[in-house]
Amino acid sequence: MLKRHLIVHGTVQGVGFRQFTVTEAKKAGVNGWVRNRMEGTVEIKAEGSQEQVNAFIEAVRAGHRFASVTDVDISTADNVEHKGSFTVLY
């Protein structure tokens, strides 16, 4: 399983971006979580096959019509806490 930690920069809070990531994760078959960070970025941890995670990351980079993704920092995650799904953390 591929495990990735993402920090998404741009206009990604207050525009439905977290729900968008939940939808895209389900489409790709990725497990993990998403949450807003205090400085205005969105943090994601995702786990799945290489194909699933890569498809999910491409969707995150593209964003949706109300978001404006300017950069995505991607690193390897040691652990992705999930219960067999992809959820929003508050």
SSE map:
Elements (H helix, E strand, L loop, with lengths): L1 E10 L5 H12 L2 E6 L5 E7 L1 H13 L5 E9 L9 E3 L2
Parallel strand pairs: 2-5
Antiparallel strand pairs: 1-3, 1-4, 2-3
Protein name: Acylphosphatase
Family: Belongs to the acylphosphatase family.
Organism: Salibacterium qingdaonense
Second-tier CATH architecture: 2-Layer Sandwich
Q: What is the class in the CATH system? A: Alpha Beta
Number of strands: 5
Low-confidence stretches: none
Which structural category do the helix and sheet elements fall into?
A: alpha+beta
Calculate the terminal CA-CA distance, rounded to whole Å: 26 Å
- Overall tally of domains: 1
Write the CATH fold name.
Alpha-Beta Plaits
SSE run: EHEEHEE
What does this 3D model show about the protein?
The protein has 90 residues and is α+β, with helices and mostly antiparallel strands. The chain has a single domain, classed as Alpha-Beta Plaits. The protein has two helices and five strands. Strands 4-1-3-2-5 form a five-stranded mixed sheet, with helices on one face. A hairpin with a 5-residue loop joins strand 2 and strand 3. Helix 1 runs antiparallel to helix 2. The protein is globular, with a radius of gyration of 12 Å.
Which key terms come to mind for this protein?
90 residues, alpha+beta, Alpha-Beta Plaits, 2 helices, 39% strand, Acylphosphatase
